[in-house]
Amino acid sequence: MKKKKARWIIRTHLFRKGEYECSACGWLTIAPYRICPNCGAVMKGSEADTTWMDEMEEYDAISGE
Predict the structure, then answer these.
(1) Which residues have C-beta within 8 Å of that of residue 38, sequence separation ≥ 6?
(2) Is the CB of residue 47 less than 8 Å from the CB of residue 28?
(3) Which of 10, 24, 57, 61 would give a disulfide with 41, using CB separation of 3.0 to 4.6 Å?
(4) Tens-digit pLDDT profile for the chain (65 aa)?
């Protein structure tokens, strides 16, 4: 049986520690692994997620900047 492949999606946040999300199953962790402990997918790299910019826009709107 062939193992599935996935990537870590790097989730960066403004006011809390970043996390990694498995692109195959959505499992979250604070450190990347070679194999996802939740679904067993073999990780083939990572990609950045830029939703932290949305958090920054919300903060700017609240602070009036």
Answers:
(1) 22, 25, 27
(2) no
(3) 24
(4) 667 899 999 888 767 788 999 999 999 999 999 999 999 999 998 877 766 566 667 767 777 76
- Give the position of tokens 């073999």: 42
Residue 23's nearest CA partner among 51, 11, 54 is 11
**Token digits for 60?**
């700017």
State the Cα–Cα distance between residues 32 and 18, nearest whole angstrom: 11
DSSP 8-class letter at 62 = H
Element (H, E) at 57: helix 52-63
> Which pair of structure tokens corresponds to residue 3?
């193992």
Q: CA nearest 3: which of 48, 32, 34, 30?
A: 34
Give the residue extent of every domain in the chain. Answer: 5-63
